Amino acid sequence: MRRDLSGKRVIVTGSSSGIGRALAMELARRGSQVALAARSIGELDQVAEDIRQKGGQALVIPTDVTSPHDRQQLFETVQQQWGGLDILVNNAGIAAHGHFIDLDPSILRQTMELNFFAMAENCRLAIPMLAEGHAPMIVNVSSMAGRRGVPAWSEYSASKFAVCGFSEALRAELVRFGIDLMLVVPGLTHSNFGKHLLARKGRMPARFDSGLAPEVVGRLMANGMEKGKHELRMEKDARLLLFINWLAPRFVDWRMGNVVRKLYQREIADQAKTPC
Ligand SMILES: NC(=O)c1ccc[n+]([C@@H]2O[C@H](COP(=O)([O-])OP(=O)(O)OC[C@H]3O[C@@H](n4cnc5c(N)ncnc54)[C@H](OP(=O)(O)O)[C@@H]3O)[C@@H](O)[C@H]2O)c1
Fold first, then answer.
1. Ligand 1, closest atom to CA 214?
2. 188 pocket-lining for ligand 1 (C-beta < 6 Å)
3. Is the CB of 143 inside a 6 Å radius of any atom of ligand 1?
4. What is the band of 186 on the pLDDT scale with cuts at 50, 70, 90?
5. Pairing state of beta strands 137-141 and 180-185?
6. Residue 1: what pLDDT?
7. In the predicted model, what is the mean pLDDT of residues 96-114?
8. Is 238 in the pocket of ligand 1 (CB under 6 A)?
9. CB 50, CB 25: distance < 8 Å
10. Does residue 5 sit in helix, strand or coil?
11. What gap in Å lies between CA 258 and CA 227, rounded to an integer?
């Protein structure tokens, strides 16, 4: 379904930084009312101020989306202030860099709690409101790592695969209510994502600074929302990797294994010397 974003009542989680901030600014520029939800109040106030200075409308709702209480309050506040909701964007997310065996079990819990459980529970709270909304839509932000698992990003890949699986199933369920669902699959984006990592034990550096600007991602997402896209894949290297993986997944397995073998050469050699 094509939609006009003007006048739409939208929640954007994780809008204090990066992609969420850029998307909120872009939606406000296109005439949406934006509810800004994240934990950093100072940053949220600044985004709201930037939006208002450009003539847009923004509502700051400090929210830790992993807290059931905060989630409830987020949707209640929007209902009270705006009388309903048209679009929910589940964008808040986090990752850890390092091999699964080297990271603490709490990292897996934290990653799933934010990237998957909070996203799913936000959908549960939003659906009754969206069912009453205008050209309603849910936008779930996954990742290239949610379509192809990447070494040193195992917890993150798992959480973002969960986002994709959940979203594909939910999209059909939402037909009952006339709600669209767009899945966003970004590649590297030059946001604060690299600064917010829960762990930095990976050996292969992730070059976030070579990725797309968040403003470009925000613009592409807003275009996708207008066009009623089902899935949006961004950034040329990520798109190429997903294409090669579609053609020859075993080749990608082999390449990724080879990279790990090179990075862990010393440990592999030491292990080979150890008597059985
Ligand atoms: N950057 C990339 O290369 C890339 C690639 C693919 C996918 N993505 C996805 O894009 C989304 C946005 O990431 P980004 O690149 O914009 O990273 P970012 O700059 O680090 O922004 C992450 C946002 O999530 C919010 N957040 C974190 N924990 C939260 C919590 N418990 N409750 C509410 N909000 C929370 C942060 O706000 P507070 O700290 O203020 O709460 C921040 O606004 C994520 O889902 C990420 O997985 C990013």
1. 16
2. yes
3. yes
4. very high
5. parallel
6. 81
7. 98
8. no
9. yes
10. coil
11. 40
Overall average pLDDT of the 93-122 stretch: 98
Q: Which residue has the tokens 């073998």?
A: 261
Average pLDDT over residues 187-208: 95
> Is the distance from the beta carbon of residue 82 to the nearest atom of ligand 1 less than 6 Å?
no
Tokens found for residue 195: 């600064």
Q: Token pair of 249, please?
A: 């997944």
What value, to the nearest 5°, has the Cα angle with vertex 186 and ends 175 and 155?
90
Q: What is the pLDDT of residue 276?
A: 65
Q: Can you read off the two tokens belonging to residue 276?
A: 């059985």
For residue 94, give the ligand 1 atom closest to its CA: 47
Could you give the 3-state DSSP secondary structure of residue 207? coil
Amino acid at site 90? N
Phi, psi of 91 (to 5 degrees): -115, -25
Determine the Cα–Cα distance for residues 236 and 250; give it in Å rounded to an integer: 21
Give the pLDDT confidence of 57-104 residue by residue, as tens digits: 999 999 999 999 999 999 999 999 999 999 999 999 999 999 999 999
Tell me: domain 9-246, CATH 3.40.50.720, correct?
Answer: yes
* Gap between the Cα atoms of 119 and 140, Å rounded: 8
Question: Does the beta carbon of 40 sit less than 6 angstroms from any atom of ligand 1?
Answer: yes
Counting ligand 1 atoms within 8 A of each CB, the residue from 189, 217, 233 with the most, and so the one to mutate, is 189
Residue boundaries of the structural domains of the chain: 9-246
Catalytic residue among 116, 153, 156, 161: 156
- d(C-alpha 197, C-alpha 114), whole Å: 13
156 is annotated as an active-site residue: yes
When pLDDT is averaged across residues 27-39 and rounded to a whole number, the result is 98
Ligand 1 center to residue 188 CA distance, Å?
Answer: 13
